[in-house]
C-alpha cells in the first residue's frame, strides 16, 4: 500500500491536520502532542510540554518528571543503551524498562523523547485512554507512520489487554523502510512467567512467538539506582534550584539521609530530601515514606486554600482530589458524573457545583484535554490518598468501592502500588481485599487484577494467592462449560499458568501443601498441552516440573522431589542444545535445585558435579549477558549452592572460597542496587560466617556474622514483614559464632532475641514460621546450658520437641529426623 506524507505543522493549541484522500498519513505536532493519522486510524503521542512552563503554586511540580526541573543526571549509560535500541536495524522493536516508584523511568523516557524529537522523530507518551481508543479502531492493521516513531507506554500493566492486541498486529507488520517504530514500555515490575508480561508476550499460542521477537532484549531491563557519584550531584542541584547553595550542614544531613534509606539511589527520594531540608525539617526523620507524607500534607493544605479562594468546601475538594488520584486521573465529563454522586454519598451535597469543582481541580492538576490529573509523583499521590481517606475510618472502604465501580482497574492498580510503597500501613491491603471480593465471580476483571501483582512482594503475596485461587476457580468453570476441543489450548495454557502462579504465591506465604497441590495441577495441564504441541509447550513443562520438585523438597519429600528436578533438567538441557542457547539460563537454575536435592539425599559427589556444572554455566552466561546485574546475581546463587555442597563434603577451604566469591558479587551489586540485592547480601554473609568458622577463622566469622545482623536489622526496621525472619536467622547464626569463642552471654542475648522474633512471627503464620521457632528453641537450649541455666535449658528443649512433634504430624518426612536429633 502507498503512503502519502503530509507536511509538518507547528501549532500552539488547536489540533489540525492537512492531507487529501483516503489512506493519507496525517502528521501533526501540537504544543503537547504528536498526532499520527492513517486514514481513520490515528495515534496521539503526548510530550507533556505544558508542565515545563506551568506555575500552579505547588511545590510538587518540581518533583513531577514532566516538569523537567533538573537536567537528566547520572543516566548517561542508560540513555546510550536506549539510543542503541532506537538505532538498531529492526523495523519494529519494543523494550520493557522496570523500576520502582521514584527510580526515574518516566524522566528518562521524557529525555529520550525530547532528544528524538529534536532529531526528527515522532516521539511521545501514549496515554492509557488514547491506547484504548486507538486499539478500538477498525482499520488498525493498516496503521502506518510517516517518520521514525517512538511511543512510550507508562503503567504498561494497566494497558496489558490493549498492548496484547497491538503487539499481535505488529508481529505481522513488516514495517516501513527507513521509518523505524520503537515502543518503550515502563512498569514497576515485569515477571516473564506471570502477570501482565504473560498476558502480552506469552499468551500460549504460536502468535506470541512472533510477538516476543519484537522485544529487544527479550527480558525486561531494570533501571538501576543512580551511582554514588551522581546522588550528591542531583541532591545539590535540587537545593540550588530551590534557593541557596548547599552548605556543610546540608552536606552532613545528606549523608545521614542517604545512609539511612535504601531508596537513596532513587532520584525522587533525593529531590524530596532536598525539599525537606530546604524547609528546615529534621533530617533524622527522612525516610522515603516520611518525606512523601509530609509533602502530601502540604499539598492537602494547598488544596484547601484553593477551595476556600473560590468558595468551595475544602474537605470536599480534598476528598475528590484523593479520589481522582486513586483512579490515576480522569476526564471532565466522567469526573462531573462521579462528583455529583460522591458529594451526596459523603454528606457534602452543598459543597459546590460539579462544574465549579471540576474547574478548581483542573486548575490544581491540569491536563491538556481539560481533564484532571492525579497528584504526582505517584508516591506523594498515594500519601495524599492515605491521609485523606484514612481520616474517614471504615467509611473509606465505601469510597474505594465507589471509585472502583465508576472508574475500574486503575483504582486497584494504585492501591497495589500503595501496598508496596507504604508496606507498614494495612489499610491499602484491606481496600484491595474488598476489590477482590467484588470481582471474585467476574472472570475478566479477575484476569485484569491478577495481572497487576508482582511476582515477588511479601506484603502482597497473600492477596495474590487469594486472587489466583479465585481465578483458577473461574477458569475451571469455564473449561467445564466450554468442553469443545477446538480452541482448548489458550484456555488450558491460561489455567496452567494460573495454577503455576498460585503455587508460587502459596509457597511464599508458607502454605507448602497447598502450593504442591497447585504445582501438580499446573504440571498436569502443561503435560496435556505438551501432547497438543510439544515444541511450543515443552519449556513450560520443564518449568512446572521444577516447581513441583521445589514444593516437594520444602515438604521434606526429597526422593520424590529428585525425580521432578531430574525431569526438568533433562528437558531443559535438550531444549538448550536443540532450540536456543538462551535456554541455558533456565538449565543453570534447574541444576542448582537438582544439586540441593541430591545433597539433601546424601548423594554428595553427584551433588558436587551438578553444582560445578551450574556454576560453570553461570560464568559463561555472565560473559555473554545483556543484563549483567541479574546474571551476576544468579552466579552468586550458584556459588552459594556450590559452597553448601562443598561444606557437606567437608571441603572446608573450597566451601569458604565459594562463599567469599558469592559475597563479593553481592557486595558490589548491593552498592548500586541495595533495594534489590542487600537482602541476598545479608543471607550470603551469614553463610560466609559459617564457612569461616568451619575453617577456624572465628574472629572473621564473628565480623561477617555481625555485618549480616546489621544488614538484616536495617532491612527489618524498614520492612519488618519482609525481613524479620532473616534477622532472626542471622541472630541465631551469630549466637553460634559467639558460643564457639566462649562468649556465652553474648550468644544467649542473640539467641533470646531470635526466639522472640520467631514467636512473634509464628503468632502471625504458624504454618510458615513454626519450623524456625522449633529450631531456634533448640538453639536457645544450648545457649542456656552454656551459661549454667539447666532448668531453663530443659524447658526450651521440651518446647522444641513439642513443636517438632506438631510438625511431624503434618510433614513427617521433613521433620522426623529433626525431632530425633532434638
Shape label = globular
Strand portion:
5-15%
Helical percent range?
55-70%
Rg is: 28 Å
Number of helices: 35
The description of the largest β-sheet is: 5 strands, parallel
Structural class: mainly alpha
- Quick one: how many beta strands? 9
Uncertain parts: 1-31
Oligomer: single chain
Q: Which helices and strands, and how do they pair?
A:
Blueprint: E1 4-5, E2 24-29, E3 33-38, E4 41-46, H1 50-53, H2 76-87, E5 92-98, H3 105-118, E6 122-125, H4 128-135, E7 149-153, H5 160-170, E8 181-187, H6 195-201, H7 207-212, E9 221-222, H8 230-242, H9 248-259, H10 267-278, H11 288-309, H12 314-326, H13 332-345, H14 354-364, H15 378-390, H16 395-407, H17 409-421, H18 427-439, H19 443-451, H20 461-481, H21 488-508, H22 512-532, H23 534-554, H24 558-578, H25 584-600, H26 604-624, H27 628-648, H28 652-672, H29 674-694, H30 698-718, H31 720-740, H32 744-764, H33 766-786, H34 790-810, H35 812-821
Parallel strand pairs: 1-2, 5-8, 5-9, 6-7, 7-8
Antiparallel strand pairs: 2-3, 3-4
Can you walk me through this structure?
The protein contains 35 helices and 9 strands. By secondary structure, it is mainly alpha-helical. The strands form 2 sheets. It has a 5-stranded parallel β-sheet with strand order 6-7-8-5-9, with helices on one face. Strands 1-2-3-4 form a 4-stranded mixed β-sheet. Strand 3 and strand 4 form a beta hairpin. It is globular. The relative contact order is 0.05.
